[in-house]
Amino acid sequence: LSVDICSSLKINKIKDGFEMDYDLGTGFWVQVWQNKNLNLKEYTSIKLKVAMQGEKNRIEIKLVDSDGTNFGYNIEDMNTDGNVKELLIPFSDFRYFWGGDSNLEWDNVKSIWIAISKMNGGKGKLAVTSVELSDEAPLKVEKSDPYYLPMESSSDWRISQDEGTELKTSVVAGNKGNAVALEYDLVKGKWVQIYKNVSLDLIPYKEISLWFKATGNHNRIELKLVDKDGTNYGYRIEDLTRDNKWHRYKIPFEKFEYFWGGDNNLDAKNIISIWIAISEIEGFDGEVAVDEIEFIK
């Protein structure tokens, strides 16, 4: 097992499995794993029987290969009534999380991880009574056009910031459902940003659409796409409307340009992260909420 600093985890033996008795405290995650040599090309899905009690938090199922590539699946709608629920998760729904080279060796998986990460935080229990590899899978649904990148949880996005700046993320009411808000202060620094690790083939798509709601000082928005060798392509929005109302921005990918890193040629078939940055024009403070990121054919 492993735990984030300021979190605690106790593993209890139960009939047919184990129980994760945790307290996230002021930390963000706890997890367990088992080392296995697995060829998952023989299977289409993973089947689990689990029961959850306590505070509502996220369950993460992760697969790790020989070079440390982590692919995972997040479960954010698990009932916490203590009743056993059978989950059947197709491997086609797993996505790149972090580490390695962003391409999972499905025939050379070395470990399976089960993590609990913070939504509400606090205490809870997760009982796991069965973990099986399966050749069953739900009927596959083709990706829709447009393809949506959810903005329901701020914990799905990581923070990066210049020295001397302040940045806090939160979930707020969106244009539809929830949105992620960046409350920032460019006190002495030049930029703040959030990013999400993904595994995307953007070749079928022609443009990106986002909704923004902004207040505060006039600063720049930078949208950035990063491929597996670190090439950054981006687009700058210099005239973001700051009237505390939702506005849609549609940007063709042909308007993105090389920013830095890698080999200056974006591999659109292998996008591993998307970044949203706020950089200095006037500086000082403000808030920008982001919702409904869509990739449109």
In short:
The chain is mostly beta strands and 297 residues long. It is built from no helices and 23 strands.
Q: Please, could you describe this protein's structure?
A:
With 297 residues, the chain is an all-beta fold. 0% of the residues lie in helices and 58% in strands. It has strands at 2-3, 8-14, 17-23, 29-38, 45-54, 58-65, 70-75, 85-90, 95-98, 109-117, 123-134, 147-149, 158-161, 166-173, 178-186, 191-200, 207-216, 220-227, 232-237, 247-252, 257-260, 271-279, 284-296. The chain has a 6-stranded antiparallel β-sheet with strand order 1-4-10-6-7-9, with no helix packed on it. Strands 12, 14, 15, 17, 20 and 23 form a 6-stranded antiparallel β-sheet that branches. Strand 6 (58-65) and strand 7 form a beta hairpin. The termini are far apart. Residues 138-144 have low confidence and may be disordered.
Oligomer: single chain
Specify the structural class.
mainly beta
- Separate helix tally: 0
Contiguous runs where pLDDT drops below 50 for at least 5 residues: 138-144
Q: What attributes characterize this protein structure?
A:
23 strands; 6-stranded antiparallel beta sheet; 297 residues; mainly beta; single chain; 0% helix
Write the layout of secondary structure elements.
Layout: E1 2-3, E2 8-14, E3 17-23, E4 29-38, E5 45-54, E6 58-65, E7 70-75, E8 85-90, E9 95-98, E10 109-117, E11 123-134, E12 147-149, E13 158-161, E14 166-173, E15 178-186, E16 191-200, E17 207-216, E18 220-227, E19 232-237, E20 247-252, E21 257-260, E22 271-279, E23 284-296
Antiparallel strand pairs: 1-4, 2-3, 3-11, 4-10, 5-8, 5-11, 6-7, 6-10, 7-9, 12-23, 13-16, 14-15, 15-23, 16-22, 17-20, 17-23, 18-19, 18-22, 19-21
